[in-house]
Amino acid sequence: MEHFKIQNLYDLTETIAADLFEGLTYPWEALPKISAFIVALGEALPADKFEKRGDNVWIAKSAKVFDSAYINGPCIIDEDAEVRQCAFIRGNAIVGKGAVVGNSTELKNVVLFNKVQVPHYNYVGDSILGFRSHMGAGSITSNVKSDKTLVVMKSPEGCIETGLKKVGAMLGDNVEVGCNSVLNPGTVIGRESNVYPLSCVRGYVNAHSIYKKQDDIVSKN
Q: What is each CA distance from 123 to 89, 178, 214, in whole angstroms?
């Protein structure tokens, strides 16, 4: 299950949350730890770069947050990030340096690495998005199975039980997700991969791949 491991998906130098992953093997193991981690880290953030706004909400002074955005704690918005009109951050969210949370985008229990873009009508829940990953307009992470059973991570090499009811998507660094795609619960997409628009993705997509449809995934040249 090497392809599921944190070091094979993410560059941990590209997130303020690197310590969240310490001692963990797989990224979804961090999901139940996000809330407490934010509170502890927030209290230690430098006052010359961050200001505390409300309960457990820390926003970098260089970040741009539109007045119509709603931000509930615990939450950290890192330097030079942009949170646009009517964004809805429900809590337990880390928004990385230079990241974009767009109009009417909803976040819940997530880590967005630096330079992530979720810019238009996205839902991202119980997910971890790697450095420079991008979700096209209307693309979403589905984080609960229709039968409400616990999420199992599946790949050709076998399955791993998460013990969690809610797991969205784990996107490696530089992943591109096309517009109006749905990433089903427990989806893992390897680094540098592209997903065609209007896709319904489940399971594991190899790094450096192009996902056209479930039975048509090709390696990049």
A: 10, 14, 22
Q: How buried is residue 74: exposed, middle or buried, by Cβ count under 10 Å (0-12/13-18/19+)?
A: buried
CA–CA–CA angle 147, 128, 179 (5° rounding): 75
Cα 62 from chain centroid (whole Å): 22
Distance CA 132, CA 128 (A): 12
Two structure tokens written together for 116: 């992530």
The per-residue pLDDT for 137 is 98
Residue 44: which pLDDT band, with cuts at 50, 70 and 90? very high
For residues 133 and 148, the answer to whether their CB atoms sit within 8 Å is no
What does the alpha-carbon distance between residue 183 and residue 121 come to, in Å, rounded to a whole number?
15
Structure tokens of 93? 């969210």
- CA pair distance 90, 72, nearest whole angstrom: 5
Question: How many structural domains comprise the chain?
Answer: 1
Supply the mean pLDDT for the chain.
97
pLDDT at 17 over 90: yes
* Structural domain that includes position 40: 2-219
CA atoms within 13 A on the CB side of 45: 26
